[in-house]
Amino acid sequence: MMRARQLAAACGAALALSGCSIAAVDYGKIRHAEYVADQRCDAQPGAVVDGAALPHFFVTSRLPDCRASEIELLHHRGDHVRYGRFDAPRDVVVAKKKRFLPPLAFQAAPDWWRALQAETDRKQGRVLLYVHGYRESFATTSKDAAQIARMTGFDGPIIEYSWPSQGKLFSYVVDETNMYHDVRNFRDFLKTLAEQGWVREIVIVSHSLGARLVIPAVAYVDRASSNADSSNISNIILASPDFDRETFERDIEEEVLSARRVANDRRITIYASRADRALAASRAIHGYPRLGSPYCFNPFEAAELKARGLPERCYPAPRAGLTVIDTTDVSRGSTGHSNILLSAPACRDFIDVVAGKRTRPERVATPWTHVFRLEPDPALTKAEHDAICRRTAEAGDDR
């Protein structure tokens, strides 16, 4: 009971920012078996999927609902991992109600892998894997994945890995629970992807809580993969990572940024913002600073920075292969938690990082050799930010 009261108090302090929940998620009023009874929930081998209409790939552990004309992926855990294709969401009418859903179709795993290989071979051997964070539905993550594809012009297939986030403001703890439950699913998928001889380079983009799936999974693949160097996992981008900063610093060089990995071109880029209100809430809940927020946990370090006339911002320690981009001064949105999708300076930097570029003239050096900050352009209008970031003008999208 004391633990529950303490957690409730921590949640209360953070509700206005990101929210959390100490209640169990409801099973619902429908048997989960009824959602998947229709054969469309389990694709038959050889079933034809229109790759032009559904250009992007997904892997999900969400429970699907195949009862209506439009298949929907729910916030419940699925009975097994499913594979399929999707496109950006659009407005559709389901049971006389307007819904914002992505068109999708499931594929049998062997067919999915063959389609992915064909698309990868047709391009440059590069694959971009997007892993979302907290408070997401399949519709919102598919919208973000499609935006990343448009914005970067990535020359290869886009894969979205979707775990059962609740998509709700006050379900942070439930999301954490489901994310950790999905660790095995994600690491097994990443290992299989990394072991494909036709995959020359994997660019991993994670947002928020997704970093806690990505970093341990990469370490697992480094240890377990038959590809001893894991050299095709080369470009790891952590946007607003909700990851314990001290844990990251302690563990990262053992495998993920070991000298051998960095020598094989492994690198990590972190996008961090002191204006990130969602990560401020996460810090309040967890008690320790998050990797995506340059908050100074040590007050003496903050005082020393202030005495030197520097901003009171603290970052992970420097190491080969690690770059931090501070987006504090270009932060946009109600929470400052999605700058690589909202802010033109951050979007431009992100585009170049995805393309494999290591430097940009727009980056401003800091006293830390591995940290750069981005400066705002006051002349940019909201429409110009949206155009540069290749956003769609959907209502309620300012996250």
From TrEMBL:
Record-annotated membrane-spanning stretches: none
* Superkingdom of the source species: Bacteria
Output the Pfam families linked to this UniProt entry. Answer: DUF900
Q: Which UniProt keywords apply?
A: Signal
The residues the entry assigns to the signal sequence are 1-23
SUPFAM superfamilies in the record, alphabetically? alpha/beta-Hydrolases
Q: Give the Gene3D superfamilies listed for this entry.
A: alpha/beta hydrolase
Matching InterPro entries, A to Z?
Answer: AB_hydrolase_fold (IPR029058), DUF900_hydrolase (IPR010297)
* Protein name, per record: Lipoprotein
Q: What is the organism field in this record?
A: Sphingopyxis alaskensis (strain DSM 13593 / LMG 18877 / RB2256) (Sphingomonas alaskensis)
Q: What taxonomic ancestry is recorded? A: Bacteria, Pseudomonadati, Pseudomonadota, Alphaproteobacteria, Sphingomonadales
